[in-house]
Design brief:
- InterPro entries: Formyl_transf_N, Formyl_transf_N_sf, GART.
- By secondary structure, this protein is α/β, with parallel strands linked by helices.
- It has a single domain, classed as 3-Layer(aba) Sandwich (Rossmann fold).
- The chain is built from six helices and seven strands.
- It has a seven-stranded mixed sheet, with helices on both faces.
- Helix 1 crosses helix 6 and helix 5 packs across helix 6.
- The protein is globular, with a radius of gyration of 16 Å.
- The protein starts with a strand and ends with a helix.
- It binds 5-O-phosphono-beta-D-ribofuranosylamine.
């Protein structure tokens, strides 16, 4: 299945998705890495791996207008499923509707807890004993669609948002490629039986 990955920054989750495509039985390939931030470090990494990249600065553009541009780039690359990986912008409902159930996101909390930003600080502040990450289907509401996979880590005494983020990120890098592979395999299977 042809996957497009959308990033805004570092791109470590995108890199873990790329690494997964090296397995011979991986059901997806990454055909485009797209960003709203032309300076995203992840773009240079993807480029160095020979992956097509696309970037356009969203600033000064209306959300729907920018989303039409990125949508055209994804469709131009014949993308069949979109993976948001640290894509730090809300998506217009037109964009989300256009990809009906074909957009995944990774969020660094045990959804439905802690949608939005500063998830690790909020989990520590609340006195939670565990944290984690969730892969979910994207709907127009932020961090809100059906969860397809989760991983849990303990919150340890003395954890700071940074130490917890590091522990969770390791799980993100394992969880996201696995969840994407499962969803891609489901799409391929549903096509065969259609
Ligand atoms: C990750 O923690 C992800 O869960 C969140 O933003 C961060 C992106 O990191 N949505 P990276 O760009 O994948 O390294």
């Amino acid at each position: 299945l042809r996957v497009g990955v959308m990033i805004s920054g570092r791109g470590s989750n995108m890199a873990s998705i790329l690494a997964a495509t090296e397995a011979p039985d991986c059901p997806f390939e990454v055909v485009l890495v797209a960003s709203n931030n032309p300076d995203a470090a992840g773009l240079a990494f993807a480029d160095s791996k020979g992956i097509a990249i696309w970037a356009h600065d969203h600033r000064g553009m209306k959300r729907a207008e920018f989303d039409r541009l990125i949508d055209a780039a994804l469709r131009g690359a014949n993308v069949e499923m979109v993976a948001l990986a640290g894509y730090m912008r809300l998506l217009s409902s037109e964009f989300v509707d256009g990809w009906k159930g074909r957009i995944l996101n990774i969020h660094p909390s045990l959804l439905p807890k802690y949608k939005g930003l500063d998830t690790h600080a909020r989990a520590i502040e609340a006195g939670d004993s565990e944290a984690g990450c969730s892969v979910h289907v994207v709907t127009p509401e932020l961090d809100d669609g059906p969860v397809v996979a989760q991983a849990r880590v303990p919150i340890l005494p003395g954890d700071t948002p940074e130490t917890l983020a590091e522990r969770v990120l390791k799980e993100e890098h394992r969880l996201y490629p696995a969840a994407l592979a499962k969803c891609a395999a489901d799409v391929i299977r549903s096509r065969k039986s259609a």
